């Protein structure tokens, strides 16, 4: 695969060499899988940021003020503030907030990679559609269609 240069940006990446439909399908599948992976990593990094910030800046205690329509018996199910704080802060290293810059940098870099993968998937899809429009009978050679013809 042609690697983009840092100066070129994802829009200026050269097109892949002419590939057959099967190779294009495999490229698209692999790019979709990679996009799912990077989405998962970004979710994990962003969740870690959320937990670090939440543990450092806890919300106001619950149940301190009488609220209309909220029965007194609801206090029996309300967790104590100390329980909530302990649950949020347990397992977090002391310097978790010191890692926010690192986590934000990782998220930004993952975001740039995610955009590159999405752009590559879009280009692969365009190439696949263009190839199909020029040679529609080539689709008959795809494994899914061959097995469908055999069953029919």
Structure explained in plain terms:
With 152 residues, this protein is mainly alpha-helical. The protein has one domain. The protein has helices at 21-56, 81-89, 100-134, 143-151. The longest helix has 36 residues, at 21-56. The two termini are 38 Å apart. Mean pLDDT is 80; it is low at 1-12.
Produce a short descriptive summary.
The protein is mainly alpha-helical.
Topology readout:
Blueprint: H1 21-56, H2 81-89, H3 100-134, H4 143-151
Helix pairs in contact: 1-3
From the alpha carbons, calculate the radius of gyration and give it in angstroms: 26 Å
- Please give the count of helices: 4
Determine the N-to-C terminus distance: 38 Å
Rounded average pLDDT: 80
Count of domains:
1
- Based on Cα principal axes, name the global outline: elongated
**Oligomeric state of this protein:** single chain
> Helix content range of the residues, please?
55-70%
Q: Which structural class should the secondary elements be placed in?
A: mainly alpha
In this structure, how is the largest beta sheet organized? none
User: Which regions have little confidence, pLDDT < 50, spanning 5+ residues?
Assistant: 1-12
H/E element sequence: HHHH
β-strand amount: under 5%
Instruction: Give the tally of β-strands.
Output: 0
Key descriptive features of the protein:
152 residues, mainly alpha, disordered N terminus
